Amino acid sequence: MAKERTYIMLKPDCVKRGLIGKVIARIEEKGYTISNMKMMNLDEKILREHYAHLVDRPFFPEIVSYMTSGPVVGMIVEGENAVKGMRIIMGATKFEEATAGTIRGDFAMKTTENIIHGSDSPENGEIEIKRFFGENA
Q1: Count of other CB atoms within 10 angstroms of residue 120
Q2: pLDDT for 39-97, tens place per residue?
Q3: Identified catalytic residue from 117, 118, 125, 133
Q4: Closest by alpha carbon to 91, among 111, 66, 75, 77?
Q5: Please, how many CA atoms are within 13 Å of residue 83, restricted to the half-sphere of its CB?
Q6: Domains of the chain and CATH, by start
Q7: Is 117 annotated in the active site?
Q8: pTM of the full structure
Q9: Which 3 state secondary structure label does DSSP give 47?
């Protein structure tokens, strides 16, 4: 398979708990390359775009509160099968379903604060890369 790009975001709990280096090490140890990375603070406008599929859900205000509670680290991660491979090493979204050895299985303490986000398809990866890094990323 050809080289892919995906968008990975280390969420506020990852940053607050000082886990950035450990998570990046896992990504690099797997063989992926981080071609761009930046720390940023998100606002409700970009979160409404990013989580458009959840805006009407009753828990959306909790997502906004959490995701604006501190900085996040956005990354463009590249490599063979990057989307699927990253989703495997991230582990299940629900922390109680994430197996030991995955990022969420080892570090997440609840589903609403689950350390990391990763694009779910190559197409969404490109959309998310443009959203957070601009059109020329």
Answers
A1: 14
A2: 999 999 999 999 999 999 999 999 999 999 999 999 999 999 999 999 999 999 998 99
A3: 117
A4: 111
A5: 15
A6: 3-133 (3.30.70.141)
A7: yes
A8: 0.95
A9: helix
